[in-house]
Amino acid sequence: MTIRLVIADDQAMIRAGLRLVAETAPGIEVVGEAADGVEALSVVRRLRPHVLLLDIAMPRMDGLDTARHLLGDPDPPKIVMLTTFGTDANLRASLRAGVNGFLLKSSPPEQLAEAIRVAAAGDALIDPAVTMRVIASFAAQPEPSAPPELATLTQRELDVLNLLARGLSNPEIARRLEIGEATIRTHVARVLQKLGLRDRIQAVVFAYEAGIVQAGRERKDPAR
């Protein structure tokens, strides 16, 4: 399947560079562009792309408000946020809004193409340059009481969520727990379903806000 992509950024040179990178990657087609958030809403709703590359800082309507509007639509596009400065406030707001990725504009071209593909597949990707800041930012919040949804998870599913929240991939979790990768995929799917989460990024946010993982240490059996 060819991934239909819209690029929204207020700088024409940035849009041109993103278009060049995207169209160089196999299986990605840029079907539209927008120079601000209001135009992005119109373009996306008219062209129905699979993925939207969305700058955070734009005139008329910023990227966060644009994302919130679009994610409230039926069958919204997958959204990858772009920014020059990965501030903690922008990171938290983007992740809570339900976007599928967060990349710095300084990310390597191959990482941009990978983020588009990952988002189109329904998963999520955070730029490795800011992943630890995301973790530290959420981990630094005051320790909350455990949400009741955690009681629905088995101990193994809690273990998987704990490691997932620390940024481990499925193969890394499988090696850590000494079980098969296919089993890990099943556990991840069950965790997302039980907690009512869409993807791994939302699981990371949930885990830190619920106090399952804290800075520098693990919290054991948070629901028990």
Architecture overview:
The protein is of the alpha/beta class and about 220 residues long. The protein has helices at about 10-25, 35-45, 65-70, 90-95, 110-120, 130-140, 155-165, 170-175, 180-195, 200-210, and strands at about 5-10, 30-35, 50-55, 80-85, 100-105, 125, 215, 215-220. The protein starts with a strand and ends in a 6-residue tail after the last strand. Helix content is about 50%, strand content about 15%. The model is unreliable at about 215-224 (pLDDT under 50). It has 10 helices and 8 strands. The strands form 2 sheets. Strands 2-1-3-4-5-6 form a 6-stranded parallel sheet, with helices on both faces. It has a two-stranded antiparallel sheet with strand order 7-8.
Largest sheet entry: 6 strands, parallel
Q: Please tally the β strands and state the result.
A: 8
Low-confidence stretches: 215-224
Q: What is the count of helical runs?
A: 10
Note the overall shape.
Answer: globular
Our measurement of the CA-to-CA distance between the termini, rounded to an integer number of angstroms, reads 45 Å
Oligomer status:
single chain
Strand content: 15-25%
Mean pLDDT rating: 82
SSE string, helix = H, strand = E? EHEHEHEHEHEHHHHHEE
Alpha carbon gyration radius: 18 Å
Helical coverage, percent range? 40-55%
Strand order of the largest sheet: 2-1-3-4-5-6
Structural class: alpha/beta
